[in-house]
Amino acid sequence: MGTPACTPLFDEDPPPRDTYILDHGFGFNPETWRRRLPDGIDLPAWFGDFPRAGRWPRITRGDLLREGAAADTGRAAVDILIGAYTWGHGLPARRGPARLRQVFDRNNGRVEQHLGEALRLLRDGGPLAAYQSLSHGGDRRLRRLGASFFTKLLYFLGWDSAAGSRRPLIMDQYVVIGLNACRSTEWDPLGPWTADQYGEYLSWAQEKAGTWGVGTEADVVERAVWAYGSCLARRR
Fold first, then answer.
1. Could you read off the pLDDT of 210-223 as tens digits, one per residue?
2. Which residues on neighbouring strands pair with residue 59, listed in sequence order?
3. For the chain, which terminal residue's Cβ has fewer other Cβ atoms within 10 angstroms, N or C?
4. How far apart are CA 162 and CA 54, in angstroms?
5. What's the first-to-final CA gap in the chain, in angstroms?
6. HEC assignment per residue over 145-189
7. DSSP H helical segments within the chain, as ranges?
């Protein structure tokens, strides 16, 4: 049998955000991540509050959005970065913990400082300014921290507090594949993506949310586009 066709986007009613976004989560093994963290860095204290799904605790978007909204220092932003990597890899973590460790190892103690500066820029200047600062050539760029994860960080830190009218969203290769299919663009799924492209995506997602259903939020569009892009990638 052939691979089933990918369901066209936006043909059905939008899913409820409570279940589709806020409860979007994964189990994880805390010790797998703790062993890879450098001296002086531990798992966030709030990791101990997560409920267990069977053997493992479970981390959700809702958890990270709540903690990200409360973050107000570079050290708190480091905790959200650890949470973003944990959530982004789930079980099994594979190379996720090693990739996170490289962010600390390759940046000579600048992670907390740069993330604190990016957090202030996000809340004072908006998501595009923060995106530019963390991108290649930006003055807060961190080696080994690419857009697929620093946009997770911006999303969790700034969803309810970023300056301006556009809310930060996650952008990775599957989102870009889905965007290309929806918008007839030819952006490289592997990047790099400019701040202008990121801004265009944020504006499009916000507009699409407004036309898809009453009360629909842009992160519902983001996850739907990711799922569509992931489906298309599997069919190639």
1. 999 999 999 999 99
2. 26
3. N
4. 36
5. 16
6. CCHHHHHHHHHHHHCCCCCCCCCCCCCCHHHHHHHHHHHCCCCCC
7. 17, 30-34, 61-70, 74-89, 96-105, 111-125, 127-134, 147-158, 173-183, 195-212, 218-235
Torsions phi, psi of 59, nearest 5? -115, 135
pLDDT in tens, 126-147: 999 999 999 999 999 999 999 9
What is the rounded distance in angstroms from the CA atom of residue 78 to the CA atom of residue 93? Answer: 19
Burial class (CB in 10 A: 0-12, 13-18, 19+), 77: buried
3 state DSSP class of 73:
coil
Amino acid (1-letter code) at residue 106: R
- Tokens encoding 13: 């009613």
| C-alpha–C-alpha distance, residues 232 and 211, integer Å | 24
pTM comes to: 0.96
Q: Tell me if 135 sits within 8 A of 148, measured CB to CB.
A: no
Query: Look-up: residue for tokens 């007839």?
Result: 184
> Between helices 61-70 and 74-89, what is the axis angle to 10°?
170
The token pair at 143 is: 């080696």
Quick one: DSSP state of residue 43? -
